[in-house]
Amino acid sequence: xxxxxxxxxxxxxxxxxxxxxxxxxxxxxxxxxxxxxxxxxxxxxxxxxxxxxxxxxxxxxxxxxxxxxxxxxxxxxxxxxxxxxxxxxxxxxxxxxxxxxxxxxxxxxxxxxxxxxxxxxxxxxxxxxxxxxxxxxxxxxxxxxxxxxxxxxxxxxxxxxxxxxxxxxxxxxxxxxxxxxxxxxxxxxxxxxxxxxxxxxxxxxxxxxxxxxxxxxxxxxxxxxxxxxxxxxxxxxxxxxxxxxxxxxxxxxxxxxxxxxxxxxxxxxxxxxxxxxxxxxxxxxxxxxxxxxxxxxxxxxxxxxxxxxxxxxxxxxxxxxxxxxxxxxxxxxxxxxxxxxxxxxxxxxxxxxxxxxxxxxxxxxxxxxxxxxxxxxxxxxxxxxxxxxxxxx
Length: 393
Fold this sequence. Notes:
By secondary structure, this protein is α+β, with helices and mostly antiparallel strands. The chain is built from 9 helices and 21 strands.
């Protein structure tokens, strides 16, 4: 930094002593010196990154002809390409963004995406798996829709990306897309219904998070009686550090909700982040680097203990409400622990990853409406659970 400033001083001195005819040369040298100072100060400048994407199907076979897009933020498409016969697409993008999202689409398959860290060298590699969409049969009339309460207390990635509102963080997602999410029922006697007094991210309760200037400023300027005015500063401090493109879903449980038998799950906001995204209090949501992702995959791939109580193996079956066919590749997330699993080609998943007792899982898959339900794991609750997912229009 000091060297850069010294060079800038020399060039400014030269500019003062040269004749007027050298104005262009002096200006060029001054611009170069300023750029050197900015670089020394750590200013992010656009850089060219080669993104190599390999697309396979559930059988690990290459998928050719798939549309690949590199996206910044929620839906800013930077560049696109098409996979070759080996399922590979290589694109070159110039960007100052540290994290990029790779989206892959092909007719007959559900959309898939993955995040990459654009700061890890001039070439990044990402593998994406596409799952086939179940064949459409004669439509069945469905009259049951989401309840009014669920429409108010739940929002998922599809609703977020489809919005044309300016969304900067998770607080914007709630205040602009679900402004009544954290409304509490009347509590005349106990006075315990404090709006959003608890917040969970990826199955972890965030207690006493560091506050930040952004959270304090937004809390101060909130209008009296607004949703933001009723939120605790600690909750706001977490929400303003979560990027909207990193969110899989946000769900709210009011003070009367006892669907999860764990301390701190009432009057609580539950934020589930997409695959490849981590969260650190005081830092916020971020793309997990490749080495960390490999470590996590190895950790969850370790063999389970040989002896598991039989009741822990309760089955969850997931089917398409219109076709009745099993839905493969559904992300099943335990909102209490943050542990997740995916449904098999038969549409089933064993719930052995859940802890005994009452819990709650969120079910999500691209092109389907995200759903959630309460689940009890106990010796007296072993009947398989059937869930019907509704395809998005």
